[in-house]
């Protein structure tokens, strides 16, 4: 972790150096000297060969890591002390701040000496090092595997698939429980997922649902997860008991043929808690569950439906799987024929375990394609006997040890999320940025670089893609249990993070071993024990709460170095004043119980990059009253727009001051996300503040807006880098909207909700040259007939039409030449889907949800015609309400 510590320190130093406040810092000459010396130290370290195993990480690297962290603490301490002093002693407990005028900078002098010492030792160390495993200037195949990223490679499961598909769709009318069992990493979830996604299986059932149980579970969360699969969302948990939720689920399933997957079950108690929820109507419903424990599998079924145990792969199938992961084909290509004998040895040494073959394959594909390196891997894998999860972890650790420096902290950070948790990629990337894991680059933004890091981890089979967004990019991801165990083990060894959950002991940590990141999961108890524990962790830099409930405890003032505070699941009645003490914050996320009021002093958080605030009351109003009008207009203080480091701002409603402070020259050049701005006036003055916006959400409410020219929506074209725009109109606008509406040519994703435009005006959207995703919701367009214009929508891949009064849609395959996914939802008047849509060569999926019977018939005819033409790519999903 020496590399990540140096990157974090450099990010902090550069942030200070580039700040408007820097000229007023008394220690600025020290900071400049430290920056120059650390930059040289970082260059030396990056040029040094990477150690091939954890055991080879020597004391010098550990010393560099620890020294970089201490230096960063010290620099931020000096800077924060001056921020406190310059803020007119705004916090009561700082009545007597440190007298910086008379401060002797002895510690900073010692820092300079320490850096010189590290440079000298690193130079001496380099002279004696020999890189046993050189990688530079050698062929690497990682990029050739990009097309397969996110797909489950199924090798050796043909017989399992055939048998289980027959059991799922066979003649047996009684409700059957079909357990899939086997050791960790054998492919239980992969097999279940491929069966669940199979079009034949999907078409056989009326309802399909998937939920992951895990070792720690709450019954009500499991039920809500199942209901969410069916589009039934329960947003008020306190008003629904487990019994009420059970009854809701049972009634929803009653009379319908369903398939439900219960993934990763660990105890018989789970089945006892859930079996009464599933009605048996003699219609062929199925429950498929996965578990490592044979006893659980036997307990949940009967002799007529025995558990299906997955066997380990034989040596030939292991070799085929390894080749798929390394080369993207079943055999070894001719140009790498010299590696075949060693490769077969590696495959054999994976002992038939698919996860081991996949992860080792990911390592080989992203490393030197030489006999020397492959021989090294073969020797290391051969020394391990796979008989249990711990021994399998030893093979997986080989891939971790050979991760590049910059990927290791990103991988370990995944351990901060609960087991089997679907990690939102947007959140993960923003956390990586706030933690300082990424180095700034002129050629690409931090967000783009982070996305590349994630794709690299996916390519190495260390991360699993769970959901993809409408633009095809990864929306959520997760980790295999065994890889998460490895992640937590390495994170503990590095003192990288500390997790508190229901079984944790809340004892104060060793002062010499204070964790930098504190992660809190479900059921954090109240009491002085946790408060005492937290108050002693003064050097902690990150606090994340991923659970639903957290008792609010007054520990914020202890975390003066805190840079990440994620309390999004915690509701506050008002803005916590103590947050303003955390002047090193870069990431702040929490929820208000009612309308948010931001204090003007929030600008003291001068390093803040990500600000996320949810308004629980407004969210509920929007759900139950779609045309709810907010009467509590709270302007965002103009001081927010003095926070030059902001990159992403998301709130339920943002009320920009009108006008924005003209005397404030600060331009938020790094701001990429601004959501959701209420009644946004797109004046040139406002848009100049946000020249590099990539994502913008706007929300217009209130009846009686007669003249839309006052909102300057034509100026949206000035946002030349905008890629994602969402416009929601709470009240149907009049005909003056369209002439005053214009979009930037850079748009890739557009969502219109309630805009009430005429289909004749669609050309302003269809002519956008880069548009890939279009979502039309809640009468975004009105009129009975839509006939697109030729040569428009040239790059559109995803089209959603929801809740429209459209009757006739006249279109051919040439109108949407690149379309991949079409969703039609709640369009009750639509007579048919144009038959020409089926002839689009790129089309993969048509979803029909709650539409007329004639529309359903038309899409079924499209599918039949495509099957007659041997088009087996196109899939159709129909959901009837």
Q: Could you name the key traits of this structure?
A:
single chain, 881 residues, Rossmann fold, Helicase, Ruva Protein, domain 3, 25 helices
Question: Can you lay out the helices and strands and say which pair or pack?
Answer:
Elements: H1 2-17, H2 28-47, H3 59-86, H4 106-127, H5 158-169, E1 176-181, H6 188-197, H7 199-204, E2 207-212, H8 219-229, H9 242-253, E3 258-265, H10 268-274, E4 286-291, H11 294-299, E5 308-309, H12 315-327, H13 340-349, H14 354-365, H15 371-382, H16 389-401, H17 408-413, E6 423-424, H18 425-435, H19 446-459, E7 464-468, E8 474-478, H20 481-493, E9 498-500, E10 517-520, H21 528-535, E11 542-545, E12 564-572, E13 587-592, E14 610-615, H22 616-624, E15 648-654, E16 673-678, H23 684-689, E17 695-700, E18 724-729, E19 749-753, E20 757-758, H24 763-766, E21 773-777, E22 781-782, E23 785-786, E24 798-802, E25 808-809, E26 821-825, E27 845-849, H25 853-868, E28 875-879
Parallel strand pairs: 1-4, 1-5, 2-3, 3-4, 9-10, 10-11, 11-12, 12-13, 13-14, 14-15, 15-16, 16-17, 17-18, 18-19, 19-21, 20-22, 21-24, 23-25, 24-26, 26-27, 27-28
Antiparallel strand pairs: 6-8, 7-8
Helix pairs in contact: 1-2, 1-3, 2-4, 3-4, 8-9, 12-13, 12-14, 13-15, 14-16, 16-20, 18-19
The CATH topology name of the largest domain reads Leucine-rich repeat, LRR (right-handed beta-alpha superhelix)
The computed structural class is: alpha/beta
Query: Roughly what fraction of the amino acids lie in strands?
Result: 15-25%
Name of the level-1 CATH class of the largest domain: Alpha Beta
